[in-house]
# Entry
Amino acid sequence: MPTAGASTLQTKSAAEGSARGRAAGPSADSITARVREELGEAWVPRLYRERILQTRTRSHKVLPAAKGAGVEVQHTLLGIELKVGRRRQSCPDLSTARYLAVFARAGCSEVAVPYDITRISHLADELESAWQRMLLLAAHHTEGRAGAFASRVRSLLAGEVRRGVEEAGPGAAVPEFKQSTRQRRTPVQEG
# Structure
């Protein structure tokens, strides 16, 4: 039969064990900040602000991924679709679907898409690489920690990406067209 002193020792050692578990490494917030710093120019919101919003864009709605929902690009008989959880969104082409998939994974509901379709494929490559690098850095910094902790870090990173993109804004619904390219006829001078 355990004595009162033994239960106090068990409670004290459990509290020390949980304190050691918390102090075993950096916090989730500090790992998130470190990953963001290590990514530098490859941070998704920075790419979005500096590379995408600086060009002519149009606003596009995206199906945001709910917690735990998968995001995949599918080839169907009707064309290319972005599948987010159980919902599907039709996309005009594969590069646009890949581009939107990155933002769907982050949980964004509306983003800017470059109006020049020849740039979308290259930007999709950059965004996908940045997203995968972010996940690899998160896995590296959470190595040896509990799975729930690693999941929390990934969730915090996705939340920061979503907030950064939402702060930058989705761009205009209709791109601005410059009318200054119109050619004017010059009057012919008679001599």
Q: What stands out?
A: The mean pLDDT is 82.
